[in-house]
What we know:
A: alpha/beta; three-stranded parallel β-sheet; 8 helices; 16% strand
Amino acid sequence: MLQIADKNFTSRLFTGTGKFSSSQVMREALLASESELVTVALKRVDVEDEQDDILQHLNHTHIHLLPNTSGVRNAKEAVFAAQLSREALETNWVKLEIHPDPKYLLPDPIETLKAAEELVKLGFVVMPYIHADPVLCKRLEEVGTQCVMPLGAPIGSNKGLKTQDFLEIIIDQSNVPVIVDAGIGAPSHAAYAMELGADAVLVNTAIAVSQNPVEMAKAFKMAVAAGRMAFEAKLAPVVHKKAAASSPLTSFLN
Amino acid sequence: MINIKVNNTPHLLKPNTTLNEIIDELGISVKGIAVAVNENIISKTEWKVKTLNENDEVLVIKATQGG
């Protein structure tokens, strides 16, 4: 079972709440995914237009909320956002994401490390979204983040594990759970990440923007479980430059 | 009267209005929100005693969809 800080997770599929066509579809898809850790963002309350409350759709005992710091540009703003989210959602968990460039949404490693250090000191369970940088992952682990969340490809790109070689190094070296976040576009990508030994994956766009988010959520659930099962069972070795018979080569035709 | 801003929108208030009173007056649902005044977070228990001053900038946030 996956443990992060004081929580145990049966499901290794974490999900996001962005980009769903309606709250109803979001709720059904998240329930179908059986995800136990679900991200939310923060926004200013619009006093003139107070409508839907996202929290009512996430009010299930198995769902833990993971507020993110999306929209901040530096460490100072990230710490402020995390403190606001702790107050609003009564959780000390935070997905730390600092990506000032709106085109590629790539995380700023320097500000992320600074903010992570500060947030750990303030008692937060810090889950940092970062590039698949093995050195940065070790630095984050050293300052006390409870996991690392390297990207597979840019956010929302659905390109899969473009950073595979570096994810493998991160998984090999890490003493904290490794959660592949961003870029996972298909259940096969998620299964592959799990086969490589990732502890969990975070999927949002690939589910939310699919033609049928509820069915896609189920597909991801099965893919993540299958990938993990395969990792635990240990894959058969790859054979190069020759074949290896799987049937006995008995000369029954003489 | 004093001038303040709530999420960048100007408001005119009676002096000594508390945070609780302005939240109530604006009809903001208190569940799942956090409030800061001039970038200092004010915890829920302090809302009823925190009075607002001229030029205060109030920030009220809540959860929304995001990945």
